[in-house]
MFS transporter
Amino acid sequence: MDARTLRYYLRAWPMVFASSGFYSVILVAGLKQIFGVGDAYLKTVGLASFVVFCIFGVYYLAPRLKRIEFGEEERYTSVWGARVGVIVGASIGTVLSVPFIDKIGFLSELPRWLAVSMLFVVFAMAVFVFSHYVWKPGRRH
């Protein structure tokens, strides 16, 4: 490993760990809002989700950002990795918007599980469209 790669990983890994912590806090807050889970379970779920997000970040995100930063040929994310990204993105969007269900007219009239499911599907479709849209700078479509 050369010095440039080492410097990159020293910069990227704290970013991955901070992002994992942020996503874990959002997940735990969402579980508390949606399910009303107790504190002991929340700590366990928070720690487990932090570890899972760190593994995905180190395995998928850090090498991809390294290739982008160093100008190497960009590889596409695997189908499995893309599905995980869509599910995580849709879950985060859903959890952040759950407090607003009562303020949205047609969602407040639906049962809570149906409203949460509809929000998840809407966010999953949005994340799917944005993650699969191929955009390359300097090239017109």
